[in-house]
Design a protein that fits this description.
The structure holds 2 protein chains of 2 kinds. By secondary structure, chain A is of the alpha+beta class. Chain A contains 26 helices and 20 strands. In chain B, strand 4 and strand 5 form a beta hairpin. Chain B starts with a strand and ends in a 12-residue tail after the last strand. The chains are: A alpha+beta, B alpha/beta. At the A-B interface, helix 1, helix 8 and helix 11 of A face helix 2 and helix 3 of B.
Chain lengths: 802, 240
């Protein structure tokens, strides 16, 4: 007897058969390859983009020597930098003079010329680049060595207003304009996201300008002599940050050290990290979801295709092929799909990753972008697709290969024997003939309907998740800026104002209402830890900010004396609930307050209490404030802004419309990202449904041919197929929408951060559009199958065992 | 034709579960077939002809009873042994030809040739087998490019790829017109006469039974009658 293991020529022959089988069902093959490719593309593109962004940030920070710690002091001789540099472990030090001021937008600005905004002047050496927090000049030149009223504009601000080399900006220092000629625009590692302070992480490139000026000039204009008020330091790689920080603080305390900011707490760095962390979750979860759907789809489709080849499997066995040879043959089939899908997926994944990274970097103004090919992702992707395809093919092949040849060659009993029974529904509802047939078809071969239904449910999950993310973000911003924040503008002051000041503001022409408040940085904590927040003290009856309080608590109750409103996220992080006590530490000292209520806010790092409570802290006999919410006549907003800035101590006037615009700009990338995901979902759904519909028709080919043989018209058959499709859609509708909502909520939870309290909102429109979109996709995906039925050779098709 | 018994069926029964019903396809069949014999299994639909053929060919297993081929009990064989049995000792011809649509005529034959090994290139041997059935010019044609009769002749050539000497034909003319069917039967008879192949041929066409040495009449899964035919007709003398 010959050995049971066949020779090479057998496998060569079988490989030829495999390739031709793939070519014969080319459309289905392409659909399966597309599904595998989309899974691999999403894995490679989204994770590569995340890694590229992370690398780009770090590269930018490295190249521009971003500080490891920033020490704010009252004033010290510039020579103190030398003392700090001498500390063992310090790599480099730069002493700077930082002055916050106002500024009128110059006539050359693209919009808002003449409007007043906040500015921050940072004095740096003009004869050389700073050793710490260097600048990357993007347009024009670095500051001239000789100084001379020149300025480098931070690039975000310059881009918002179209300012560049040759323009003139005039910051207001002590009420006096200081004209400075723009030498160039530059990116700063401190302002990759333009955040004025830890309490104001909102992007505000349109209302906050960062100007880099020659240190000597700034010292002269501010009469600072040869002093500095900000020391930025980088540490050597092996240094102990805590020890170094303590050593430097010891040097700087005599000079009025007021603030130490380690890199992790630097506003821009922290905001980017939060943003990137949120992106990381999505970048991992979305490909996982898509891969899961791809795996499920490939499993279902491949299993059906293998089952459709049962007669051939039976024949091969009848001819004497071993079970192993049959199994290997069909696994080669799966392997070909996996390899082709992987090649396509890898080929598309990296360019898409580069595009995503570029779009994100452009949106945020990351100056130094690094992209690369991640071989490990390619390996993971290929292994994953091969594993999925082989696993998908193995089950049905084993079942078919195990069957006796005579059994395998017979018609599939599941497709033929479970017939001829009225459905349960027919006992209760009399259905017309045209409906009875598709209904029976759906329930006749349950495995087929189930596998198609699972594909439809997968489509619902993908599409509803993508759609509801985009919709939720838009709703979140609209809801926040229309329903919650009811003010038009705010003004901040760097001193406490009193009742006459409020009267003056309220008396300004165009101001409808001004509500006093106090804003101050605070630390809220308990034994479980502490969180940095922006604490706002407001009158309990104010209506400028609408609280979204949980559990039916009213604002009056939550803001009663001795209470504080926290956000749900902070409460969760600290493990506290309404009624618990928390310690609140501010410049006014440490107080213990009861949690009066939990409110859902756009930004999680905020807290509110009553203005009366603040007054009690300060012991002041009269109400005082450093912040106002205003509603105003929009036509007079510029005049109001100017008059607010004329109030001594005015530091910032902000328009809600500008903040909302900045937010939408920041989230522009999010929309691009989710649109890509939605695109993936739609293409994958189409490929998935196309295959499901095609295999459905193949399995019923003889029946359709027989119907046509007895004179049923093509349109009638197409209608029957459409009705059958609609029934499967209807059955998948509820589980699909429910699972889609659950997955969307689960993913939204992972997107939450201190920066953004993202709540998923699946609107009725989301449900309706998703359901309608899937139905239309299913019907479109049926068209090739309907065409196939219309072109059947009836003589042949009626004999084919399916 | 020798008197040596090539095939022996002892009290063979086969039951099928069809949904909730048990179908008794064969009931205690005893049958012997000699080497070089051409036996026709005749009977109406559902009488157990194809089941008998499938059991002899090792495509299926009996529910009870024993089947011997060349003295070996194939009904006791495991999957591996049955695979080798089919590969080396049996050639099948099916009613619907069962050619692989994505392989050409020669490649379909090579599908079997490659399994059994032998001298010479696969292509030369497959072409030789095609020549034997009169299709030497159809080597590179795919099944869809062949007529029904041509496809069935390719199937016969494939069945002879292993030189098994046992040809099992399941309604080989059932899907063909009379002229084409006659050509196909001519090939089968030639194989029986010239190559001394043992042929078991399933048909419900009584006219065909005239070419057999013996005709086994089956009814309701049992042998109804066995007719001896000392003067088998030549296929060319058949008419239906």
């Amino acid at each position: 007897m010959s050995p049971i293991w066949p020779g090479k020529s057998v496998y060569r022959n079988l490989l030829r058969k495999t390739l031709r089988d793939l070519r014969t069902s080319l459309a289905q093959t392409i659909a399966l390859i597309v599904i595998v490719a989309l899974g691999i593309t999403s894995l490679i593109a989204l994770i590569s983009a995340y890694r590229d962004l992370s690398t780009s940030y770090n590269h930018t920070y490295d190249q521009l020597h971003f500080d490891d710690a920033d020490f704010v002091i009252n004033r010290s001789p510039a020579a103190v930098a030398g003392q700090v540099a001498a500390v063992d472990g310090v790599a480099a030090v730069t002493g700077r003079l930082v002055v916050d001021a106002g500024m009128q937008l110059p006539p050359g600005a693209d919009s808002g010329a003449g409007n007043q905004i906040r500015s921050r002047l940072i004095g740096i050496p003009s004869d050389r680049h700073p050793e710490v927090n260097d600048l990357l000049v993007l347009k024009g030149n670095y500051l001239p060595a000789e100084g001379g009223a020149a300025v480098l504009l931070e690039s975000h601000f310059a881009d918002v207003y179209g300012l560049g080399p040759g323009d003139t900006v005039s910051p207001l220092i002590d009420g006096r304009a200081m004209p400075l000629k723009v030498a160039g625009t530059a990116a700063s590692p401190e302002y990759l996201i333009v955040s004025p302070s830890r309490q104001e992480v909102f992007p505000s490139a349109s209302t906050f300008a960062v100007l880099f000026v020659p240190l000597a000039d700034l010292q002269r204009i501010t009469n600072a002599g040869n002093t500095v008020n900000d020391i930025v330091v980088t540490f050597k790689p092996d240094a102990d940050p805590a020890r170094l920080t303590a050593a430097i603080q010891a040097i700087l305390v005599p000079y009025g050290l007021s603030e130490t900011t380690p890199r992790a707490e630097q506003p821009s760095y922290a905001a980017l990290k939060l943003d990137l962390d949120g992106y990381r979750q999505i970048a991992v979860l979305m490909p996982l979801l898509i891969l899961l759907v791809a795996a499920g789809s490939v499993y279902v489709m491949l299993a059906r295709q293998v089952r459709a080849q049962r007669p051939q499997i039976g024949l091969m066995k009848a001819l004497g092929y071993t079970k192993t040879a049959v199994v290997l043959h069909y696994l080669t089939f799966a392997l070909c799909l996996a390899v082709a899908g992987s090649i396509l997926g890898v080929a598309a994944g990296f360019p898409l990753a580069r595009w995503l990274t570029g779009a994100y970097a452009t949106e945020l103004g990351i100056p130094l972008v690094q992209t690369k090919l991640y071989i490990d992702l390619v390996v993971y992707g290929v292994l994953l697709s091969v594993f999925v395809a082989l696993a998908a093919g193995l089950g049905p092949v084993l079942v078919s290969a195990r069957a006796l040849p005579a059994v395998a060659m017979r018609m599939d009993p599941a497709a033929t024997l479970t017939t001829g029974r009225p459905t349960l529904i027919e006992r209760f509802i009399h259905m017309p003939f045209w409906l009875r047939l598709p209904v029976r078809n759906v329930f006749r071969v349950r495995r087929r309907s189930l596998s198609t239904g699972i594909g439809v449910v997968f489509s619902f999950i993908l599409v509803l998740t993508g759609w509801s993310f985009i919709g939720s973000m838009s709703y979140l911003l609209s809801h926040n800026f229309n329903d919650i924040e009811r003010w038009d503008m705010t003004a901040s002051f760097d001193r406490l104002l009193t009742a006459p000041d409020l009267a003056q503001i309220q008396g300004t022409e165009g101001v409808r209402q001004a509500v006093p408040a106090v804003q101050l940085p605070a630390s809220v904590g308990n034994a479980g830890g502490s969180k940095e927040v922006l604490l706002t003290a407001v009158p309990p009856d104010q209506t400028m900010h609408s609280f979204q309080l949980q559990g039916g608590v009213t604002p009056a109750e939550a803001l009663s004396p001795g209470k504080i409103i926290l956000t749900s996220r902070i409460a969760d992080d600290l493990g506290i609930k309404t009624g618990d006590n928390v310690d609140v530490e501010t410049t006014q000292g440490k107080q213990t307050l009861a949690v009066g209520g939990l409110s859902d806010e756009l930004n999680s790092s905020v807290a509110y209490m009553s203005l009366d409570e603040f007054q009690r802290w300060t012991g002041s006999p009269e109400p005082r404030f450093n912040f106002t919410y205003l509603t105003a006549d929009s036509a007079k907003s510029n005049d109001i802004e100017a008059s607010l800035y004329r109030i001594p101590g005015a530091s910032s006037v902000q328009f809600k419309s500008a903040i909302e615009s900045d937010w939408r700009s920041l989230l522009g990338f999010f929309n691009i990202f989710m649109a890509v995901i939605l695109g993936f979902a739609l293409v994958m759904s189409f490929a998935l449904l196309f295959n499901a519909m095609t295999v459905n028709v193949l399995e019923q080919q003889r029946e359709f041919a027989t119907m046509r043989s007895v004179g049923v018209g093509r349109l009638r058959i197409a209608l029957q197929m459409a009705v059958e499709t609609a029934i499967v859609w209807l059955l998948a509708l509820v589980p699909g929408l429910l699972l889609g909502r659950l997955v969307a909520m689960w993913m939204a939870g992972s997107f939450q951060s201190d920066l953004l309290n993202f709540q998923i909102t699946v609107t009725p429109a989301n449900y309706i559009l998703t359901a309608a979109g899937i139905l239309i996709t299913m019907l479109l995906a049926s068209l090739p199958a309907i065409r196939r039925v219309n072109r059947l050779n009836l003589a042949d098709a009626t004999k084919v065992y399916t | 034709m020798s008197n040596a018994k090539l095939i022996r069926l002892e009290r063979v029964a086969k039951d099928y579960r069809m949904g909730e019903v048990t179908v008794h396809a064969l009931r205690d069949v005893d049958l012997e077939i000699a080497a070089g014999e051409l036996v026709v299994l005749l009977g109406p639909s559902g009488c157990g002809k194809t089941t008998t053929l499938n059991l002899i060919g090792g495509l299926d297993k009996p529910t009870t009873g024993r089947i011997f081929v060349r003295g070996e009990e194939i009904s006791a064989m495991d999957e591996k042994a049955l695979t080798l049995y089919r590969r080396r000792q049996v050639g099948f011809v099916f009613q619907f030809f069962n050619l692989i649509p994505t392989l050409s005529a020669c490649e379909n034959i090579e599908l079997s040739l490659a399994l059994v090994g032998g001298d010479g290139s696969l292509r030369a041997r497959s072409a030789g087998l095609l020549n034997m059935v009169g299709l030497e010019d159809r080597c590179d044609h795919f099944p869809s490019q062949l007529s029904g009769g041509e496809q069935q002749r390719v199937a016969i050539a494939r069945a002879f790829a292993n030189h098994a000497g046992l040809l099992l034909c399941d309604e080989p003319t059932g899907n063909l017109d009379a002229d084409t069917g006659q050509k196909v039967l001519g090939v089968v008879q030639r194989m029986n006469r010239e190559k001394n192949a043992t042929v078991v041929l399933v048909t419900h066409n009584t006219a065909i039974s005239a070419i057999a040495n013996r005709v086994v009449h089956l009814r309701n899964g049992a042998i109804d009658l066995i007719e001896e035919n000392d003067q088998p007709k030549d296929v060319s003398d058949l008419a239906w």
